[in-house]
Amino acid sequence: MSSTTLARTSPRRAAVAVRTRRLAGAAALAVPALVLGAAAASAHVTVTPDSAESGAYATLTFKVPNESPEASTTAVTVALPTDTPFTSVSVEPVPGWSAKVTRAALPEPVDVQGTTLTEAPASVEWTADDPDAGIAPGEFLRFSVSAGAVPDGVDTITLPTTQTYSDGEVVEWDQPATGDDEPEHPAPVLQVVPATGGDAHGAASDTAAQASDGAGADGGSGDTLPLALGAAGLGLGLVGAVTGVAALARTRARTGQQ
Length: 258
Known about the structure:
By secondary structure, the protein is an alpha+beta fold. 34% of the residues lie in helices and 31% in strands. The longest helix is centred in the N-terminal third of the chain and has 40 residues, at 3-42.
């Protein structure tokens, strides 16, 4: 190859090499950015399962992440509906935490399955027995209740939740979602579906709660596995794209040499 050909093709090679390096850098940055964005979007107080049959008893599990970089979560309070109340609520013990169910008079008597109620459970509060038992930064904890009967005649039950930190900060998870826009602090919402029969105490709802909660309180793989697989798939796709660009660059360079 003559010196004239080398002089003509060298700038082309250099330009292709620069573009290849830029694409590779963009690919390297895309995966962690996507993972961080997905993690931030999921860091809300949520309830599982997200639906329960009317008239049944359901095990409701509230997943509470700690979003403070320094303080611990020391108290969690879930407000229960009083216009369409649960007839009873019992709590699952959480080591290092104390739980209290508060009953209150209803605004007006409510008929539930033939029984007239004038008071009902109005809130559940969990409090860390000492600061070391709180939810530390970077951690989360699950709090479960058995609630029923699930009210009839409603489509959804909103369960506003208050999260208190050791430094005095209080976060209210009580904002309603409107359309496709998610608020900064959305309230946990339980969908109510028509009863399909079976156990009056909602064994089906309890089973759904366990299934939708993934590996349970100690593993948490149900939350992380889909995210990890998605990130891995995106990474492989981006690597393939960069490899393709590099191969195209080499082909063009060889063509130019000819």
